[in-house]
Amino acid sequence: MAEFKNPNQQGGGQDSRSFLVMVVVMVAVFFGLQFFRSKNPQTVTPSAPATTQSAPAPTATQPGAVAPAVAAATPTPSAVPAVKATAEETTTVENELYRITFTNRGGRVATWILKQFRDSDGHPLDLVHHQAAEPFGHPLSLYTYEPALTTAVNDAMYVPSATGNLAAPATLTFKYSEGNLEVIKTFSFDETYLLHADVQVLRNGTPVRALISWPGGFGDQDNAQAYASAQLDFSRDGSSTHLAPKKVSGGDTLNGPFDWAGVSSNYFAAIFLPDAPATSTVATFHNQLDVAKTIRRTGLGSGSPAKGSIEVSILGAALGDVNGHTQTRVYVGPKAVNVLRNIRATGSNVTLEPLLDFGFWGPIGKYLFLALQFIHTHITSNWGWAIVILTLIVNTLILPLRIKTMQSGLKMQRIQPQMDAIKEKYKKYKATDPKRNEMNMEIMKLQKDNGVNMFGGCIPTLVQLPLLFAFFSMLPRVVELRHAHWLWVPDLTSPDPLHILPILMVLSSFLMQYYTPSPGVDPQQQKMMAFTMPAVTGYFVWNYGAGLGLYWAVGNLFGIAQQMVMNRTSLGREMREIAAKRARRKAGAPATLQGKR
């Protein structure tokens, strides 16, 4: 009712007269009503006394969060009818790609099986990280900014719209209400990896800001590298961002707009695509977990756990709407380029393809994989042989550069005596003496006058190194190569169990340097490089994915074959003859004139 002020606090007689008139009117109305009722008697049912309750306090938010609006001084409505189950039961939704089992405890996911993928033990892959789900939450559970409320809505016994097995397309709704709290979670499924979630939490009839979450990593994370490569991914206005664990703060809230946002591991992702990108927000989770009992160590058998305490980062994310009603599509599946490029954000052409991030060498790695995928689709169905064919194609394409390198090397050998003479002239000067600069200038002028490119011998290496680095960054991120076998290798993304490829790579690297002419290189330095580089690269490949060792070893073998053929050409024979002359001259033997005996 209206609020009246004490007239004694007002000034002037006019206020007093107004108050007197008002009292007279009220008395007249009172007696008038009494007279009317006496003329028209009626039965009146007394109403229950009204109860009032203060409005709930605004929900606490993390830094950067936008708190939902809370109505002030709103009377509490009558309690909603109780809707809750008495026993826990499950509902399984299935299509050709997945089999998701929900539990009515919290209306959350118990298992999320991807039918086309296997885990390290050969069982169907469950993307739920069960060890992390227990302390941090199960997929599609809710997250609010009130810990007690979060616990309540995730432990409540919901009433599902269906139990048993459902075949997609299908819709599954979970309802729960008790006291002044009401929760409705509706999930819709089709024949793809996508599902749609519609979540609303009401308290006293007012929306509470509740976010739907993927809080606890992925079930395929069974080694240190898999945990280290986890990341928080999101896209704003078509620009994607990928954050490593060390850059993710637990409990932060990021404000939209978001085209999509979520978390991913090496090969799989859980991504939210909000229906209303402009008003969406994302909460980030970063927890630590001891996985010593479940992690696998490189070099041990598939059933061999690590020892001691091993703390790893577990990333998660939750998406909601500032208005309190969360509606979003959810993608849970592989980071396969052919799948990701066909999923678009709401109201835009932004796809999930940037989710497949190849790092610094991304552009090269992407097209390297697309070429590999083309070979796998049209030439061979085995990924190992596809790598072999791609390697042969790459080395064939750089063959002209190898020939150019030999031509440059031959020119270098022809002027080598003159270069040695220049070095002899300046050898009495120390390396710090300014005269040494004159020596370098004379050598550069000599090379220029004879058309020698001092970097000519580096061209093939400069071309091959980016390809090698791109292959290195691409290999552990392509889900198509996950568990892809080749001959004795069961998984091209894991180390060769017999270490045949690393050994072959070391031997072929040594032979490659042995057969490749190195004009102008100091013999001692050449010997050191011939042994040191293969050893270093061999150690590097020993514990890395076998696919990289296969690519490297096949490239070396093909390069050796190319070099042996090139050494038999007139160009190669002349290089060897000049090199032999130089060796005899250094040894003090008389030189033999060409064309004479």
UniProtKB/TrEMBL annotation:
<keyword id="KW-0812">Transmembrane</keyword>
<dbReference type="InterPro" id="IPR001708">
    <property type="entry name" value="YidC/ALB3/OXA1/COX18"/>
</dbReference>
<feature type="domain" description="Membrane insertase YidC/Oxa/ALB C-terminal">
    <location>
        <begin position="383"/>
        <end position="568"/>
    </location>
</feature>
<feature type="domain" description="Membrane insertase YidC N-terminal">
    <location>
        <begin position="91"/>
        <end position="370"/>
    </location>
</feature>
<dbReference type="GO" id="GO:0051205">
    <property type="term" value="P:protein insertion into membrane"/>
</dbReference>
<comment type="similarity">
    <text>Belongs to the OXA1/ALB3/YidC family. Type 1 subfamily.</text>
</comment>
<dbReference type="Pfam" id="PF14849">
    <property type="entry name" value="YidC_periplas"/>
</dbReference>
<dbReference type="GO" id="GO:0015031">
    <property type="term" value="P:protein transport"/>
</dbReference>
<dbReference type="InterPro" id="IPR047196">
    <property type="entry name" value="YidC_ALB_C"/>
</dbReference>
<keyword id="KW-0653">Protein transport</keyword>
<dbReference type="GO" id="GO:0005886">
    <property type="term" value="C:plasma membrane"/>
</dbReference>
<dbReference type="GO" id="GO:0032977">
    <property type="term" value="F:membrane insertase activity"/>
</dbReference>
<dbReference type="Pfam" id="PF02096">
    <property type="entry name" value="60KD_IMP"/>
</dbReference>
<keyword id="KW-1133">Transmembrane helix</keyword>
<comment type="subunit">
    <text>Interacts with the Sec translocase complex via SecD. Specifically interacts with transmembrane segments of nascent integral membrane proteins during membrane integration.</text>
</comment>
<keyword id="KW-1003">Cell membrane</keyword>
<feature type="transmembrane region" description="Helical">
    <location>
        <begin position="19"/>
        <end position="36"/>
    </location>
</feature>
<feature type="region of interest" description="Disordered">
    <location>
        <begin position="42"/>
        <end position="64"/>
    </location>
</feature>
<dbReference type="InterPro" id="IPR028055">
    <property type="entry name" value="YidC/Oxa/ALB_C"/>
</dbReference>
<dbReference type="InterPro" id="IPR019998">
    <property type="entry name" value="Membr_insert_YidC"/>
</dbReference>
<keyword id="KW-0143">Chaperone</keyword>
<keyword id="KW-0813">Transport</keyword>
<protein>
    <recommendedName>
        <fullName>Membrane protein insertase YidC</fullName>
    </recommendedName>
</protein>
<dbReference type="InterPro" id="IPR038221">
    <property type="entry name" value="YidC_periplasmic_sf"/>
</dbReference>
<dbReference type="InterPro" id="IPR028053">
    <property type="entry name" value="Membr_insert_YidC_N"/>
</dbReference>
<keyword id="KW-0472">Membrane</keyword>
<comment type="function">
    <text>Required for the insertion and/or proper folding and/or complex formation of integral membrane proteins into the membrane. Involved in integration of membrane proteins that insert both dependently and independently of the Sec translocase complex, as well as at least some lipoproteins. Aids folding of multispanning membrane proteins.</text>
</comment>
<feature type="transmembrane region" description="Helical">
    <location>
        <begin position="454"/>
        <end position="478"/>
    </location>
</feature>
<feature type="transmembrane region" description="Helical">
    <location>
        <begin position="383"/>
        <end position="403"/>
    </location>
</feature>
